Amino acid sequence: MLSRVKVSFARVTADDREAVLSILRGAPELSHVDINATFDRWLREGYFIKAVDSDNRIVGVLHARQLEDAVWMEGIGVSSDIRRKGVGRQLAAYVMELTGGKVFRVMASERNVPSNALALSLGFKEVDRVYFSDGARVTAPELARRLGLDEAKDVSLEGPGYVDSWTWRPIEYYRGRVFSNGQVKVLDTDPPFFVAGDADGYMRFSRQRAAYSEAFIVYELRRA
User: Fold this and answer.
1) Counting Cβ atoms within 10 Å, is residue 6 exposed (0-12), middle (13-18) or buried (19+)?
2) CATH class for domain 8-120?
3) pTM for this predicted structure
């Protein structure tokens, strides 16, 4: 059995920027966002927690914040030289207790094997799977104009949830505009989210797997 590394926990500070960013830069979930701006935002909101080893070295990091009905966990990272030694599990368990939440969610790239393994080891269950494609970065209204979609009213939305600013939310919480032609339905999110249909060449999330798209798995844990 792999040994567990003894760590302590504390909030991330501005002085931790370089050490934390060096851990986060390899996360597929953060490869398409401004990581410096994300670091600054995480400092201001939620729980931005670091794991520190006996040599006072930051070896893990995790951010959590309350969304509508659940605690959203993101930015989970462990130093590459110390993975598979229990640091991620200890860090996640600590943050879950710290938040006092009952429902937790996290989204991991299908190719992020450590994050998927961590979620499953903690008892998380898959609740959704969405597909990200890179391409031209346009807003949802501009994309709708290019595709000939109109703003729709009282339109039904398919699927359990949607992604906005790289956070997953249950579909019943969506309150924004919907652009549609009856077959294609796009939400006014960043990047645009296709709840029905798809369009090549644009940065987007979609319910349909497209050529060269990357699958993201959404996990949920409910505690009594």
Assistant:
1) exposed
2) alpha beta
3) 0.93
